[in-house]
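Supplementary Methods S3. Input chains for the assembly prediction are listed below.
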Amino acid sequence: MTPSKRALSERSDPELVAALVAGEIDAVDVLFTRYGRVAYSLAIRILGDPGRAEDVVQDAFVRVWKRAASFDARRGSLRTWLLTVVRNCAIDHLRGSLHERSEMELQVEVRAEGEGSNPWREVSQSLERDAVRVALRSLPGEQRQAIELAYYGGYSQQEIARMVDAPLGTIKGRTRLGLEKLCSYLQGRGLIDGD
Amino acid sequence: MATEHDELASAIPALVLGSVTAEERQQLMLHLEGCAGCRALAARLARGAAVLPMEPDPVEPPARLRGRVLAAVATVRPDAPPRSSPLPIPALQRRRRPPRPLTGVRLGLIAAAAAFVLGAVAGVGFGHLAQPFGPSRQGPVAGPVAARYPLHGTGAMAGVTADAVVVPRDGLAVVDFRGMPQPPAGQVYELWLLTGDSRALPAGVFVPDSQGSRVVVVTQDLRGATRLAVTVEHGPDGASAPSQTPQLSGRIA
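Predicted structure tokens for the full assembly:
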């Protein structure tokens, strides 16, 4: 690893964004090292196809590189932004959307995010993943299903209602209740901020 | 009977999960601007939605993906920093934020980004010697991640702009063609890797789009290749050896 590369890899995410804005392509390399695996894992989860997941991750990184100047850290973290882009690209691939989704600005920081050394980041991400899984498993099946179909499948509430043969209002209620419980669980464990 | 507010509020969970249409989203974001209660609800639920990407089983990406990403990124110019807020609708804000102050550091970054973009457009810095993309302001760089090489056209290809971006570590090259004339009917362009010992290895065929543009990813082994060249060959599969002298070529090593 070269001196400049090492310096980049030690930078925080906001500093990495500044490097992206400055057109430093090495910053993309560091970004991939930091979040390439979680991005690819998310794309695989949504698409179930390694080849298409590669396409999506590539598209997402290009989009983040191209639009780095519009990133606003006050709206959320770099990781959340990147993963939102990955998710949206994957859903577009999955559903054949003709319209590029705008990246959701409803982004928030997640406490367990690690920006330090690789071992710590991996431990941090592993703990976070375990907590999210436990939280999701703790939800009633119908609530979890509503959240997963919306997030990983990109289905609208109307589509989910038709799929599971339930009234639209019921689906909306399940989704909200599920998200509320998820938040409470994660807040209780200090993984996300409270109000 | 549900009010309009209730109707909008009931769509907020779908909004934070990213499963609303662009029109619904715009309507909801507009509503959030004026409704503190819904804004708080959206902020709360968004915290839960934000962790969902962490749930999937970790899967190690294939080694080539890093190279693909870097090669693709190297062909794209980053957008210049916006003059004002880039987002049409502020998200989860209590009020509109004032423009971000242009500090000395930020001005420097903007200037650097602008210089990068202008340099890329004007070809400044991409002369006959390959220039590595990257932190030229940050001291010496050993082994750049990617390097850009211009291809030069003659004859019918004189007006073509083509840049090859090579990612040495991953043995990948991406060639960005612009201003290519359409090949004659039934023919295609064929890209060749020319080696130091005068061999020509086929690296793919392509036809430019209606704007004369095409990006070609070269995944063949680049070891030993010193130049890239383009010829016109019979379509759709091209030839196994060049049938003419290339009118577009450039070195890549």
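Chain B has a mean pLDDT of 74. The two ends of chain B are 72 Å apart (CA to CA).
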